[in-house]
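Pair request: fold both.
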Amino acid sequence: MTTGSESARFPPQGRTVAVFGATGHTGRFVVAELLRRGLAPVAVGRNGKSLAALGFADRGIATRTATTDHPASLDRAFAGVAAVINCAGPFLDTADAVAAAAIRSRIHYLDITAEQASAQATLDKHDAATREAGRLVIPAMGFFGGLVDLLATAAMGDWDRADDIRVGIWLDSWHPTQGTRITGERNTARRLVISSGRLVPIPQPAPERSWRFPAPFGDQDVVEVALSEAILIAHHVHVAELHTYLGRRSLQDLRDPTTPPPKPADASGRSAQIFMTDVVATKDGGTRRAIAQGRDIYAFSAPLVVEAVRRILEGEVRASGAHAPGAIFDARAFLHALAPELISLEITAS
């Protein structure tokens, strides 16, 4: 098994982050964000030709090839780095192998999965070994999962529990990547929500309702669609009910096989897609709310996961083991640090 090409300049370990799946749509955003933040990416892909075609080495970025079915190739790819961000889905097929390799290499592991089963397995399986290694494992540190978990944690503030958390997600459109479509075909497990304090399957057909989003979206039809945020929140928040709703229009885009992939709308490669995530927590009749608005759910996952890596590598987090982001980060400070990637952020209590 060849390890592929590697640029001659390899930066210090403490600032070096491997990106597994660097040739993918989101992986390319993550590599660019690491560079913007002054961190040193190592572009890791399953195909050396794809790495070469994207010109990583021409920009002074180290490149390595590795596959999940060859553990030794992963070990070589992660040599000399401080952390790995896994952007290669379906994560049901990649997360276990990449996380295990990270633990063997004694480095931090993060991924951006929206797949509930993958996030749950990563939290359950790799906690003990990561604690022993003194490193962190954080699954689902992307738009679906990590953002909602941080918003819910920020909304709750000093509450030690919540009676109910409702999440409304509105996308003005959803042009899925090829990876999203492949993951949808692979991920056939029943979606789980929290009801009566337990993870249980969403009733079928999925419940529908109207959600009043702030301007400019207003009242919108939404459908209950739980993703990895339910696993993260259940891991560290005492809540009796947790339900997530996604706009009907974006679900129609996703389910339509003729919907094209994302189209760049600026020099950074971001699409024009606008998102709004609205999290409402209640306890004993009181209500707290956190709302985030931004652009391009795929591109936004990059500053989200890179901010997490930066905080870990700079020593702002002293924990070890497998965690949800809301359990180890200061959620409000983390979210405010994402400006200007977030168009707006509002956290209120009544």
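--- second member of the pair ---
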Amino acid sequence: MSCPQNETLIHGYVDGELDLLNALRLEAHLKECPSCALAYENHKALSRTLKSGPFYFRAAGDLGQRIRTALVESNPAASRPIASGRKATWLRLSRPSWALLGVAASLALVALVALRFVPWPQHPSPDELLAQDVLASHVRSLMANHLTDVPSSDQHTVKPWFDGKLDFAPPVEDLSAQGFTLVGGRLDYLADRPVAALVYQRRNHFINLFIWPSTERSAQKAVMRQGYDLIHWTHSGMTYWAASDLNYRELAEFVRLVQDRIPP
């Protein structure tokens, strides 16, 4: 299956409707994701098929004239003369007028289809805004070369570093034996408050694990934004967000390991 969040982008890309930024992002993603690349090729093949062969309907050349004749015959008043001074004029539509009516009808049909099928932009939900902030913090930590405030692979060094800097004690787990090396920790700011950011590494991929207290209760959920996976869950009065460009399967494995070690 292709990545669900790229389905809409692929449709727009095939139809040439994407802006430059989204088109470039999707092109880069297609080079790295075989399933999305296959979906893109399938969409292209479907588009070519619908535009050719027996699936493409071409109207008869005299269809327009037959419609005009039928309309005049169905409304005799349209052919009666109307007095205009000494001369009589005929109330009938010329070819240019019919052409304009045809364009208007086509635009009306397009508008009707758009109202029915095209999703209108909506204000993002609070969860969506928070996911965007989490992603922005993750990307910013990579771009600014500011992954950690306390660089250490020792959980007994990282955990005490947060004392006095936060109003809670984040759980810090050593997962190096499972292939997720603790790199360190830092302070970050999300949901209008300071939060803990624990950084782990899997090969050349970094994982930011954001933690802060929360009264919400929600089931685990995963989203993907701009090629990054985010997994969110809550546990014992704390909320967790894991963000990385690591493939989803391994990120989910990381999340499971963290969850198994967090005390109830």
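Observation on the second member. Residues 4-55 form one domain.
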